[in-house]
């Protein structure tokens, strides 16, 4: 059975840092969409805290956007991919902030969102009721990467897992002393 096709899809994440697990999710999602928006969740306070906890330098949303945009720039369907930054600053924690999150996301993406693609099913718990006309799709992890790489793994042990990073992120990490 062939997978359903969509006009507009969204892949949402922190991409802190972006890695090959993200790439696999994005490429699989792109196969199913005419247009795909990669949306970087940007909460500066949370990002600073995550980076500090893992003894990493701060990685701004603009830097992560550049790494992703550069990585996908040479794909045959590069014009079908847009990398956007979602302002999550001053957003109430989930689930109380979900309605405002949805409002911000739908205002940011300039088309009706037909599909939301996730690599983790724990994210979708409160999502479906806020996107009743949107297909929520959890993609299988570990399809393109083995072991099953997650952002938390990358942040905690980047030297051992650096071969899973996007080249821009890897150059950044290699240029700093931690």
Briefly characterize the structure.
By secondary structure, the chain is an alpha/beta fold. The chain contains 7 helices and 5 strands, in the order βαβααβαββααα.
Structure description:
There is one protein chain. This protein is of the alpha/beta class and 178 residues long. The chain has a single domain, classed as Rossmann fold (3-Layer(aba) Sandwich), CATH 3.40.50. It contains 7 helices and 5 strands. A 5-stranded parallel sheet has the order 3-2-1-4-5, with helices on both faces. α1 links the parallel β1 and β2. It is globular. The termini are far apart. The relative contact order is 0.23. The mean pLDDT is 89.
Between the first and last Cα atoms, what is the distance in angstroms?
A: 48 Å
Would you identify the CATH H-level superfamily? HUPs
Helix-residue proportion: 25-40%
Major sheet strand order: 3-2-1-4-5
Structural class: alpha/beta
CATH architecture title: 3-Layer(aba) Sandwich
The top-level CATH class is Alpha Beta
| Helix count, DSSP H or I runs of 4 or more residues | 7
- Overall shape: it is globular
Helix-strand topology string:
EHEHHEHEEHHH
Number of domains: 1
Residue share in β-strands: 15-25%
Q: Could you please say which CATH topology applies here?
A: Rossmann fold
Please outline the major beta sheet. 5 strands, parallel
The oligomeric state of the chains shown is single chain
